[in-house]
Write a structure and sequence with these properties.
The structure holds 2 protein chains of 2 kinds.
Chain A: H1 6-18, H2 25-28, H3 39-47, H4 67-70, H5 79-83, H6 106-112, H7 132-143
Chain B: H1 2-23, E1 62-73, H2 79-84, E2 93-104, E3 107-114, E4 118-128, H3 130-133, E5 137-146, H4 147-150, E6 152-165, E7 170-180, E8 194-207, E9 210-217, E10 219-221, E11 228-237, E12 240-247, H5 254-258, E13 268-277
Antiparallel strand pairs in B: 1-2, 1-13, 2-3, 3-4, 4-5, 5-6, 6-7, 7-8, 8-9, 8-10, 9-11, 11-12, 12-13
Classes of the chains: A mainly alpha, B mainly beta.
């Protein structure tokens, strides 16, 4: 190698080596390593599946039969319609999911157990509850407009 | 997206190649007449406070630097309490150790570690010298820092340092530097995962060996906290430079600077000490 090219080679190596740097989402989402900020992924990994940490699937209670008592069916065919832009039945004035506004979405309040919620933090049989990484993904989905994607 | 970044970065590298190659056509002088060894009164050090200058490390020579950023904000508590704590010196500090080496004429590389276990590797190439063109100096800088002793969260940076020396009275700096992955979250969960720093800096000589220094680093893209700012006073003593500074954050690596200062109300005492081994 000609010595005159050395600075260029060093700079190019530095650039190429750095081009793909990013944190892995799977490192953050812990017991649901495939979780993505999309509705289909949240449905599959959170609502429908008991994760490896033992957090129970939401649909164990929030299904067609359970919804007669708890007011919300999260089975895949109807969950989106029951969440986005829908008023809570038990907390007057609260909306379950407000597109673009995770901090004021009642779903987030219930999953994080915030003060002022009606009833108990979800999942009812927790702990374990959703991890902070799983909550970040749900909030990001809402922040991006809570699309049915 | 990654391929787009790679193509962009390669394009930048190709763009700087002619300058690099052109500058390399001059044979290296012998050590005795190497102008890089001469004291530079306008730029006595390799950094302003945190940002790089265009001062060159002579070939096969080196320099060492210690940075301290004390953790107690100068505005916390009353004056008596602050004085009892010697203005923060009794509190903890983020400490950094840096070593840089002149690989060849105009090319330097180094390593810097801060006490929060961040390690930064950097390289800098002097593409233009003001002593040649009479107007500006221009360096290309590249670095990458990684947290947890370079095991987690890598933040690469690429940019240029443009300096204009004001005779022997000091120098002005503009430093556009792109820092990738400055957001600690995965890009899937963030609007911005990189930041363009527009580093602005100045060093003014107020006495034969005493300087005032200042930096301000506005950002475009991922910009939490406040834009990092710092100012200070320094004294050159032979191959040493002693600097006392006040900053609105603890950032010293490119990734840390891209994450901004802690708050506009929080100012922290700090110091830098550097030593040239030539």
């Amino acid at each position: 190698m000609h010595v005159n090219r050395l600075p260029f080679v060093i700079l190019a190596m530095a650039c190429l080596g750095s081009a793909g740097c990013d944190e892995a989402l799977s490192d953050l989402t812990g017991p649901t390593r495939n979780l993505q900020p999309t509705f289909s992924s949240i449905q599959r990994e959170i609502f429908d599946t008991t994760d490896s940490a033992g957090r129970r699937a939401c649909t164990q209670c929030h299904n067609a039969i359970g919804s007669r008592f708890n007011g919300m069916d999260l089975t895949a065919s109807v969950s989106y319609a029951n969440l986005v832009g829908v008023a809570s039945r038990v907390k007057p004035g609260a909306v379950r999911v407000i597109p673009g506004d995770p901090e004021n979405s009642y779903l987030v309040h219930k999953l994080e157990g915030r003060a002022g919620i009606a009833g108990l933090r979800m999942p009812l049989v927790g702990p374990p509850y959703l991890t902070s990484g799983q909550m970040l993904v749900i909030k990001r989905w809402i922040e991006l407009g809570a699309l049915n994607n | 997206m990654t391929w787009l970044r790679i193509v962009t970065l390669v394009a930048v590298c190709v763009a700087v190649t002619p300058a690099v190659a052109l500058a390399q056509n001059n044979p290296a002088p012998t050590q005795a007449d190497d102008p890089d060894r001469d004291p530079n009164r306008a730029q006595p050090d390799f950094t302003i406070v945190n940002l790089p200058t265009t001062l060159r490390v002579p070939r096969f020579k080196s320099a060492f630097r210690v940075t301290h950023r004390f953790a107690r904000p100068l505005g916390a508590g009353d004056f008596g309490s602050l004085a009892e704590d010697l203005f923060g010196l009794d509190s903890g500090a983020q400490i950094g150790l840096e070593y840089r080496f002149g690989l060849m004429r105009g090319l330097q590389a180094g390593i810097y570690r801060t006490s929060n276990r961040t390690i930064e590797f950097f390289t800098q190439y002097s593409a233009l010298q003001q002593r040649d063109n009479g107007f500006v100096g221009l360096d290309v800088v590249a670095s990458i820092d990684g947290t947890n002793n370079f095991r987690d969260s890598y933040s690469p940076a690429l940019g240029v340092v443009v300096s204009h020396e004001l005779g022997t009275h000091g120098a002005l700096y503009v430093e556009p530097i792109w820092v990738n992955n400055s957001n600690p979250l995965p890009s899937d969960l963030a609007d911005d995962n990189s930041a363009l720093l527009i580093g602005l800096g100045a060093r003014v000589r107020i006495r034969p060996t005493v300087y005032l220094v200042g930096e301000f680093i506005p950002r475009v893209g991922y910009d939490p906290g406040v834009n990092h700012g710092t100012f200070g006073i320094e004294k050159r003593a032979g191959g040493h430079v002693f600097q006392l500074n006040v900053s609105n954050g603890f950032g010293t690596t490119m990734g840390q600077l891209a994450r901004g200062g802690t708050g506009s109300e929080d100012w922290y005492l700090g110091f830098n000490i550097s030593r040239k081994f030539f």
